[in-house]
């Protein structure tokens, strides 16, 4: 069976996009990675409607990417903060890769909003693809993609 004959129903890219493949969701995750936790802060910083924000936050909590943690400011009612779970933090390299692509191909003349650097040596952080045997950075020409055990014929 070849790639074009395989069903993409079980494709991990497709399943990931089903959860986080919408613009506002990725911007919420970008902000969460950068320490935003409260509804009002997401709303103000991203600039989307309260209804869309509520819907996206609810979906991210339902998917186990964010969790809610109650808080109460003095004189106010109890509310929830939104914090990344381990599953949410596992999306950090995806966000870094999107940012890296954007810096290379879609950045304005003013430069990037964030300058992400390694805390120990202050070098810029970059996302790379490597094999599990820790060989050097790989390019698409150095990898072979084969159908995996979950591949099924298209119907």
Would you mind describing this structure in some detail?
The chain is mainly α. Helices cover 38% and strands 8% of the residues. The protein has 6 helices and 2 strands, in the order H-H-H-H-E-E-H-H. Strands 1-2 form a two-stranded antiparallel ribbon. Strand 1 and strand 2 form a beta hairpin. It is globular, with a radius of gyration of 19 Å. The two termini are 13 Å apart.
Total number of beta strands: 2
Q: List segments where confidence is low: pLDDT < 50 over at least 5 consecutive residues.
A: none
Secondary-structure-based class equals: mainly alpha
Straight-line N-to-C gap:
13 Å
Strand order of the largest sheet: 1-2
| Rg of Cα set | 19 Å
Q: What is the H-and-E element order?
A: HHHHEEHH
Strand percent estimate: 5-15%
Structural features:
6 helices; two-stranded antiparallel sheet; 155 residues; mainly alpha
């Amino acid at each position: 069976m070849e790639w074009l004959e395989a069903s993409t129903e079980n494709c991990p890219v497709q399943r990931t996009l089903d959860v986080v493949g919408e613009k506002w969701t990725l911007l919420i995750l970008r902000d969460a990675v950068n320490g935003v936790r409260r509804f009002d802060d997401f709303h103000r910083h991203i600039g989307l409607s309260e209804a869309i924000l509520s819907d996206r936050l609810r979906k991210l909590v339902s998917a186990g990417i964010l969790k809610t943690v109650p808080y109460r400011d003095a004189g106010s009612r109890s509310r929830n903060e939104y914090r990344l779970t381990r599953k949410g933090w596992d999306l950090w390299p995806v966000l870094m890769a999107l940012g890296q692509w954007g810096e290379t191909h879609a950045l304005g003349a003013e430069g990037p909003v964030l300058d992400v650097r390694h805390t120990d040596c202050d070098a810029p952080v970059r996302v790379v693809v490597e094999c599990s045997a820790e060989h050097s950075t790989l390019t698409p020409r150095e990898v072979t993609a084969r159908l995996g055990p979950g591949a099924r014929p298209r119907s």
